[in-house]
Design a protein that fits this description.
single chain; four-stranded mixed sheet; 39% helix; GMP Synthetase, Chain A, domain 3; alpha+beta
Length: 113
């Protein structure tokens, strides 16, 4: 076997090993966020998983999918009034997705007339 052929085999084996290692790491990742901070769960699933706990916070009147100024999807938490207390209870990120607050005031059903 010549030197060039041996070199090709070593490079191929190395690349194959790296690909296998990355695939195994991804398959065994039990976190809800990848190691580089990219969300693993779909934002709709994240909202569904956290709506009940967010709505249980006093002053929260709604949860939706929104968009940041740079068009990044986010979990939008609608609140009656922005206070330090409510800001401390609502996380900045949920399962790798940003959370944004929107002061909406009270939300009441419309009169059916």
């Amino acid at each position: 076997m010549n030197f060039t052929r041996a070199k090709q085999i070593c490079v191929t084996a190395l690349l194959l090993g790296i690909m296998l290692m990355l695939n195994c790491t991804k398959a065994h990742n039990t976190n809800k966020e990848s190691e580089i901070g990219v969300p693993v769960l779909d934002i709709n699933e994240v909202m569904k998983n956290h709506t009940q706990e967010l709505m249980a916070i006093e002053g929260v009147v709604g949860v939706a999918i929104g968009e940041l100024e740079d068009h990044t999807p986010c979990i939008l938490v609608m609140i009656v009034k922005e206070t330090d207390e409510i800001k401390a209870k609502i996380p900045n990120m949920l399962d790798g997705h940003p959370v944004s607050l929107l002061v909406s005031g009270e939300i009441r059903p419309m009169d059916g007339n």
